[in-house]
Design a protein that fits this description.
The protein is of the alpha/beta class and 493 residues long. Helix content is 43%, strand content 13%. The strands form three sheets. Strands 3, 4, 5, 6, 7, 8, 9, 10 and 11 form a nine-stranded mixed beta sheet that branches. Strands 12-13-15-14 form a four-stranded antiparallel beta sheet, covered by helices on one side. The longest helix has 37 residues. The protein is globular.
Length: 493
């Protein structure tokens, strides 16, 4: 069932797409819109924010909201549709395949369509160099001794102030610096569950998280997800009935689907976590890769009872080589501090100080402001390039609202794993959909990285993959025709 703000957004969107509200048109103020629709100011705000996150409207400072949508003259690209399924505890069955694909996805000799990472051209190398140089220049003698296992106070302060600018506050005392986001998630999973326990995850879900859970000997309870998000009623049912103590999810630009949950949905999740005492471990690694000017709020913003753990890193917004992440624990879990510090994988102090400098110098925020429109344009270029290459194929592609993961759904007869092995043989990296969930539900899907600018090699790689799919479809059609012919002949006999 749609929330009221979603229904209002759908009504506005229809008017925008029908040109009743043309591009450049100024919209009613939030207060005027709320009064007209007889809804609360918060509902009106959620409606506008949803349309903004989807790129249909934009806000101008001190001027209000304006329509930004321009009708695409080309054919529209349908989004993937996945079937519903029963949520139940189950083992992750394909760990060996997960490990194989993980290793190949970071092979730098292959064309970069596998691992989700930014092109070196999008990394602010000079700004990073200057920050590292300044950090070393101004460091203190004690900075070269054993460091605080919670993380350097200067970086924790910098992160706390950085997030406050984006509208949410986390105390520096609640921030723990780790060697990337995955170690942070792993530490929290180990402390909030034990071997054999189940962790709730929406699927299709980032294969690296599933690999981590398999390595920790945790089961998963899958919640069906699509390009719009996932069913909160199902989430509540599972929280209530399964006994799971932890839920691992991404609310902002989930990998691989790219959805961004609404503020109302995030608030609801925080409430459910408290109601059923099921900790939400929030992976917000793509939160700063929005296509809109504003950063979406995390679920943590609505956490009033201390059941949300906020995790992230700069690997997707800055550089995958910059191994600095964090987990932020609520006061409810303060008693775990000693054991968390013992298990936390620390980050070398100069690197922490360099990131703090990057934040305080405003270079990081300037980088994000430049990156967002680049990513938006680049992702759309990828979508249309893929659509053109796969012309004649029944293809569905997600339309992410941020991040740069593309999720392709191919005809049922196409095996994504076969496609992966074909790509490997030709020096191309892709990730088959099979490793994003259990039960081979996503066997006809693949995930592609759109973080690199489109090059001649990438165009050629996508064309080669499309030609392979078309060849497989021709074989399938031929086999189907042969079966039909044989059946006809048998009938005639």
């Amino acid at each position: 069932m749609a929330f009221q703000y979603q229904s209002l957004a759908a009504q506005l969107l229809e008017k925008i797409q029908n040109a009743e509200l043309p591009a450049g048109q100024k919209l009613l103020s939030l207060r005027q819109f709320a009064n007209l629709q007889k809804v609360s100011l918060n509902t009106a705000k959620s409606c506008y924010e949803l349309l903004e996150s989807q790129g249909y409207i934009h806000v101008k400072n001190k001027s209000g909201y304006f329509v930004s949508y321009q009708k695409n003259t080309g054919p529209s690209i349908p989004v993937p549709q996945h079937p519903d399924f029963q949520s139940q505890a189950r083992d992750i069955s394909n760990l060996e395949l997960q490990l194989e694909i993980q290793q190949s996805s970071i092979n730098s000799r292959l064309i970069h369509l596998g691992a989700i990472q930014l092109s070196p051209k999008h990394v602010p190398v000079e700004a990073l160099r200057r920050s590292i140089q300044r950090a070393l220049k101004h460091s203190q003698p004690e900075d070269f001794l054993y460091s605080d296992k919670q993380g350097h106070i200067r970086l924790r302060q910098a992160l706390s102030e950085h997030w406050a600018e984006d509208g949410f506050y986390i105390s520096q005392d609640d921030i723990y610096i780790s060697n990337g986001c995955m170690p942070a998630l792993s530490v929290m999973i180990q402390h909030l569950s034990k071997e054999g326990d189940s962790v709730i995850v929406p699927t299709p879900n980032f294969n690296g998280q599933l690999q981590m859970l398999a390595g920790l000997k945790r089961k998963i309870i899958e919640i069906p997800a699509d390009t719009q998000g996932f069913d909160l009623e199902r989430l509540e049912q599972v929280m209530q009935s399964s006994g799971a103590k932890a839920c691992l999810l991404t609310a902002n630009y989930q990998n691989p689907l790219g959805f961004c949950l609404s503020n109302a949905e995030k608030e609801k999740i925080a409430q459910l976590a408290a109601r059923y005492q099921c900790y939400v471990i929030e992976d917000d690694i793509y939160g700063e890769c929005s296509f809109s000017s504003s950063r979406p709020l995390p679920i943590k913003y609505w956490d009033q009872h201390g059941y949300v753990i906020f995790c992230g890193s700069v690997s997707k917004s800055l550089s995958t080589a910059y191994r600095v992440g964090w987990f932020c624990i609520p006061q409810r879990l303060a008693h775990l501090k000693a054991t968390l510090l013992m298990q936390n994988i620390t980050v070398n102090t100069p690197l922490q100080l360099a990131l703090a400098d990057l934040i305080y110098s405003r270079a990081y925020r300037e980088h994000l402001q430049q990156l967002k429109p680049i990513l938006k344009q680049q992702v759309e270029q990828y979508r249309h390039m893929i659509q053109h290459a796969f012309d004649g194929v029944e293809l569905r592609i997600n339309q992410p609202l941020g991040g740069y993961a593309l999720w392709l759904q191919l005809p049922e007869c196409i095996d994504g794993l076969d496609m992966y092995y074909f790509a490997q043989q030709h020096g191309i990296n892709i990730v088959p959909g099979e490793v994003f969930g259990e039960g081979q539900r996503y066997k006809n899907c693949i995930r592609l990285n759109a973080g690199h600018e489109i090059s001649t090699d990438i165009r050629a790689a996508v064309t080669l993959l499309a030609d392979w799919v078309k060849a497989q479809l021709s074989i399938d059609v031929g086999q189907t025709s042969g079966i039909k012919s044989a059946c006809f002949e048998a009938l005639m006999d």
